[in-house]
Automatic annotation (TrEMBL):
The keyword Acyltransferase does not apply. It is an enzyme of class 3 (hydrolase). Homodimer. InterPro entries: dITP/XTP_pyrophosphatase (IPR020922), ITPase-like_fam (IPR029001), RdgB/HAM1 (IPR002637). Its EC number is 3.6.1.66. The active site is at residue 69. One of its GO terms (molecular function) is metal ion binding. It comes from the Bacteria. This is dITP/XTP pyrophosphatase.
């Protein structure tokens, strides 16, 4: 089975390829085609964005497609950054700028009120138009300053529940077992194997 991963994020591609490595699914991505159309993520839910992306890219490539939309939800901020996680500090914000904004907004928030979770909504759209959506969550809390060099996005600020290190310190082997994307992808993998 050929499956197209509809993401422009190289980190996500690598993460998903590792998780699907033990299957007979042939994975293709932006690295295998000339160009991928940009899909504007203008829906107000993670599922809405992932479905929109999967439909558009499946139509464009003529291949069954998986797309995801993920982000960070911080309880003390009323669910922010949420669907705006990638552009929290502005339309073309860097990870560092987004992280700085988050830390600034939480600067007077005590540790016990810094609960957060990463969520990943993942959608599959087949060339025949079949659709399936799953979500995965990873609960934890936000640190007071960036920790670690690995990972991307908010990884240096997020300590998953049951751990003392941030996603950026834990390394990809641990992260690929416990992350929101790993949980969503495991559910998706189960569905695809059927």
């Amino acid at each position: 089975m050929k499956l197209f991963l509809a993401t422009g994020n190289q980190h996500k591609i690598e993460e998903m390829e590792k998780i699907l490595a033990d299957t007979d699914i042939e994975i293709l991505s932006k690295n295998d085609i000339d160009a991928m159309p940009e899909v504007i993520e203008d829906q107000d839910t993670f599922i809405g964005n992932s479905l929109k992306k999967a439909r558009k890219i499946a139509e464009y490539t003529g291949m069954s497609t998986i797309a995801d939309d993920s982000g960070l939800v911080v309880e003390a901020l009323g669910g922010q950054p949420g669907v705006y996680s990638a552009r929290f500090a502005g339309e073309h914000a860097t990870d560092q700028e987004n992280n700085q904004k988050l830390l600034e907004l939480l600067k007077d928030t005590p540790l016990e009120e810094r609960k957060a979770y990463f969520i990943c909504a993942m959608s599959f759209v087949s060339v025949e138009g079949e659709e399936y959506t799953v979500t995965g969550k990873c609960h934890g809390h936000i640190t007071f300053n960036a920790l670690g060099e690995e990972g991307f996005g908010y990884d240096p600020l997020f300590i998953p529940k049951g751990y003392k290190k941030s996603f950026a310190q834990l390394g990809s082997e641990v992260k690929n077992k416990i992350s929101h994307r790993a949980k969503a992808l495991e559910k998706m993998k189960e569905y695809l194997m059927k």
